[in-house]
Amino acid sequence: MRFIFFYIIFLMTGGLLSCVEPFDPEITNYENALVVEGYVAEGKTPARVILSRTFAFDQDTAEYINGATVRMRDDQGNEYRLLSKGKGIYESDTNAVQGIPGRSYQLLIETADSKSYESSWELMKKSGEIEAINPRFETFVTGFDTLNGMQVYLNTSGLDGNGRFYRWELEETWMFRVPYPARGYWNTTTQQPVFVEPDSMHRTCYKHLKPADILIATTEGFSEDKLTDFPLIYVSTQTDRLSLKYSLLIRQHTLSAEAYEYWRATKEINQELGTLFDPVPADITGNIRNIDDPDEPVIGYFSADGFTQKRIFIDRIDVPPVNIPTGFETCPYIIFVDPADVQRYVLAGNAWVGAVTDFFGNIIGYTGSTKKCSDCTQQGSFVKPDFWP
Amino acid sequence: MTKSRILFFSLILMMGAKLHAQTRDPMIADNYNGQNIKAFFKEVSTRYNVPFYYAGKWLDSLTVRQEKTPVLLSEILDKSLLGTPVNWFQDVSGRVILTYNRVISDSLDFVWKPPVKILSPVKENVSVAETFRPVMTTLSDSVSSTGLGLREIGGESPSRAAKVTLGGYVRDMESGEPIAGAVVFSEVLKTGISTDNYGYYSLTLVKGRHEMVFRSYGKEEIRQPVYLLGDGTLDVEMREDIHMLDEVVIEAEREANVQGVQMGVTRLGIETLQQMPAFMGEIDIIQSALMLPGIQSVGEGASGFNVRGGTASQNLVLINQAPIFNTSHLFGFFSVFNPDIIKSFDLYKSGIPARFGGRLASVLDITMKDGNNREWVTSGGISPVTARVTVEGPVFKGKSSVILGARSTYSNWILRQFNDAAIRNSKADFNDLNGKLNVEINEKNRIDLAGYFSRDYFLFNGDTAYNYQNLNGSLSWKHLFNNRLYSVTAAIFSQYDYKIEITESPETAFRVGYSIRYQEGKTDFTYIPNPQHQIRFGLNAIRYDLEPGTRIPTDPLSLVTRRDLENEQGIEGGVYLSDEYDVSPRLKLYAGLRFSGYAMIGPQTIYDYLPNASRKVRNLADSTFFDPRKLIQSYGGPEFRFTSRYNLDDKSSLKLGYNRMRQYLHMLSNTTSISPSDTWKLSDPYIRPQVGDQLSLGYYRNFRQNSIETSVEIYVKTIQNMLEFKSGAQLLLNPYVETAVVSGKGRAYGAEFMVRKDRGKLNGWVSYTYARTFIRVKGNFPDEIINRGKYYPATVDKPHDFSLVANYRFSRRLNFSGNFSWSTGRPITYPVALYNFGNGTRLSYSQRNQFRVPDYFRWDVSMNIEGNHKVEKLLHNSLSLSVYNVLGRKNVYSIYFVTEQERVQGYKLSIFGRPIFTVTYNFRIR
Fold it and tell me: How far apart are the C-alpha atoms of A249 and A312, rounded to whole Å?
């Protein structure tokens, strides 16, 4: 709705009168606060907590906290330890924790500098079922651009009365191929190419991405705890996602009203500002506090979520025959006659791709391309994921 | 030169000379017995310095009768004139005035009290010699500066009391419309009053001769000499100031600045507004008011206004006594008041009279025009966005008139110019309709029926429709018991509702609705026992009926359920008594006491929350259902209103004021400005009434014969139970709305400086305000604390504010105007750091309102060209050309930050980032 108001402003001012310009604030100091993101999920999914600190605009990334003691307890008196996995991530042992709906959970953190934090007690909801994930080909006209792509819709139904608040975490995985995979490597000692088995050629790789958008919805106010055709993500053909095979994992969390509210507020102040009727942005109160110093600002929320997940695949053949860029359209393919030339080319950071043979199989030259166009590990992972068929 | 002129002249001279009186009654040393009396007078006047005034023909046959020497002059005069028709009188400065067949009584000297004597008390028990009419009453050509003849009032039933009451109506000569706010005063006594909304005044004066002065904005001044013998009526009709177009005068204001007891009040006539540059050619009360000190808005296009640090919902906006709940069209770009039907408005920032109540910050009292009761007139105009037409005329000539005004937009054409399909599929429509009928049943009774309707419709992209409307009406009856006591009794109705309908897909099609209904009955009495007191008292009762929210599925396939928040009912009542008391010519007091009470009544469910826990849905403990008409919660208390004026001298005064206000109706809004989906909410067991106290002190001084007014006002304000909203609060359709709000304390202070010139070719004003406003929210639980419980600047906190309004008249038909305004940017909450959360980089905001948007700066100009000024012409035309934001400055409305692919980018949004040129045409046909 806010977005609509924004349009109204445009329209009332002749569209040209109002304007939006980039702005760089001058911020001299900021509060370095602890950030806690975490949940314990229904079933055998490991409980997961990420600890970090806020960081300044000119810093690239957050400072993750690895040395803390992180524990979780439930209302039955069980206590679990979450172990550091690096990058600020702490996870429980899958076998040890079983998230049981109806129980309450609390997170306890002790940092290396002996500060103790706790979350409020969170009651775990029970998840309903994801009924269907439906990708459909859709074309959008936005301004001057026409977009083609697959719009992924979700149908889900919750267990009424068990929470009508949802959050989804998406994980995208897609396969891609380089056009000129290197057939092997160049032995600089012998100054000869060394062939490798075709299986070891870095031809096909996988890319992973977790979209940063906060995806939440509620069925509050609906007669049934049911969502039909809820738009999850638009996979545009402007990227290479759909060029071969694409997979999407949908992890559905059923949240408490407060946890939902926290995510909603976070989403609102991060994505939906810039209109005439913006809410006054402000710091959002989470459910983590310093036990000894309740005034210390702590960002974040620890929730106990009902949980279910579903994975889908979209093959190239599922997408209508529209042009899908691979990103390799401009790859060079160079033939060298003199081995010294190909050697120089490879030493300059490029790749040897193969050999040119004559009618009798004699090598009469070598081919080369850039590393990006011949080695898929430059952009993705060569390891085929477990779930990939 | 006739004798009367000589006489009058002499009387005038007496005033100045009084203090320098010489020997009044000299001893005459020589004997003049038998001489011609005229020769005697000549001799005495040169020798003893006693001037004589007379007409020679009276004295032709008279001789001096003197029996001894030395003898007093008075003795000679008495003896010589005994038995003749000639009488004599000697004033305090020794001048001797002879009259023929008339007696001058010096016990009437209160009439001629010169200015220096004002400070002494008025002489009581003055009696008029009933056998002789004082000399002036028969002089029909007695001089007044406007050449009006002397009128004898109350002669048919002369009163024996020393004081009599003069009452009457002040009307417009052309249209017969009452003139409100005209100042009526006796020039000599400096006693005055202003007319009420019906153009009525009532003034108690000592008997005798007065020159009554009538002044009103844009009207020719009237000076009417009267001779008061008893209670009576004096109605006057004022003519438009056609001959003095180059000299627009607000006489009333000029006197009021220094002499009035009121402080923090501004009255602007529509004439002033018409000269100022208008955005998109739409003359706008609220936009114009923003140029006054102490009145601000949070940004361009924001609906509502802020008075001395108050929120927009703390203003009581009344049109014909009925409140308006949404004052803007099209989400805030235009105000809902059609300029053609507005006569004037009063804006009270402090010193709010006891007859008003219910809002903390201000009262904006808008008066609609009465129809022309002489002839039918049609007027109207077109601007790029609206067309307006007003028809007015007599129903019964001179007794009853009607006015009807309509305004409608045709801005759809703008929408169709866009490439974007979403906008092309949109429709914008707003209109308003106003009407008023008045009937003067007789001299003592008058009835007014007024109605107001405004509607907004906005359809976005063919699937989201906004609909909101104001409807109100009032029926009032004014009754004159006598010249000293009158009452106005009114029945008032007002309703505001909105609907938002979303039909994007059948499954999610729904409509959200809200409405508030207001019914009020009230009666106000004004009693003027004598010129020292003006007593007002009255009572009112209001009933509120709110539908806080409904959501209704609008498609059979829709999965949206119906939700109806329970209706709310409330009753508010008030009684008040106030007195405006002239303690002495230097000191004037206004003291008022209002007692207001409020009750929320059933049927309604009230939720209980766990004790010692923060008010959250999770801490819900129980609920109680209250039966219909059962008391749920009541609040109330006294509200003191006090102002005083102390004249330092003729040109300057000091004023001190204090007032307390209570507000039982709150606006739920967590946006910076008022948005169309904001709702009003009644006080309940959790949301307590807001209470505001204000103390203000002002110094006022006029220069150059009152043509330049200056004022300095300082104020301190505190607000209890100010409503603030939790971060990210969800207010719409929330049955537990008490969990989304917190209550805070507000405090504000400031100083306002203003220099105003209303006359001359160049007129306008300059104002500067320094003002601060802070809020503190310190609840018992973390989510009920904002900024760690410390005071933080409110969104309306703009410390420096400078405005300049200038108007230059080149000729009667051409004038140029310019507005200039500069103010500190409003406070804003910035993100100060980043953090990782939910796979993305998020913004960590500072504490509330720790930063500011850049300063606001705007300059507008306009040119008004009037058609021919012949009064009798049938068609009057005028054309206005205006440029809004001449400099094209991109004033920042808001700053916001968006995370774009792991990067945070800040943006500033400006709304009118370039000059906007408009042409408006207005006409008037009669």
Answer: 7
ipTM: 0.84
Inter-residue contact A160 to A224 (CB < 8 Å): yes
Is the pLDDT at B894 greater than 70, yes or no? yes
Work out the average pLDDT over B201-220.
81
In the predicted model, what is the mean pLDDT of residues B372-394?
88
Matching residue, tokens 């524990």? A71
Digit-coded pLDDT (tens) for B234-250? 888 888 765 443 333 33
H and E: helices and strands count for chain A = 4, 24
Q: Quick one: pLDDT at residue B917?
A: 82
B609 token code pair = 């929350």
Neighbours of B567 (CB within 10 A): 14
Within an 8 Å CB–CB cutoff, is residue B743 touching chain A? no
Q: Which residue of B has its CA nearest to A13?
A: B912
Residue B627 CB partners (closer than 8 Å, separation 6+): B602, B603
Give CA–CA dist B531/B749, Å, rounded: 35
Distance (Å) from the alpha carbon of B506 to chain A's nearest alpha carbon: 11
Question: Is the four-CA dihedral B759, B763, B766, B767 of positive or negative sign?
Answer: positive
Of B113 and A208, more confident? A208
pLDDT at B718: 95
Q: Is the pTM of this model over 0.80?
A: no
- What are residue A342's phi and psi, to 5 degrees? -65, -35
Q: Residues of A with CB below 8 A from B848's CB?
A: 280, 282-283
Q: Which two tokens stand for residue A6?
A: 């924004």
List C-alpha distances in Å: B130 to B97, B101, B102: 21, 15, 12
For residue A161, pLDDT over 60 is answered with yes
Distance CA B155, CA A2 (A): 72
Helices (H) then strands (E): counts for chain B: 8, 58
Give whole-number Cα distances, B120 to B124, B255, B647, in Å: 12, 21, 15
Tokens of A267: 């989403």
Amino acid at A379: Q
CA distance A166 to B898: 23
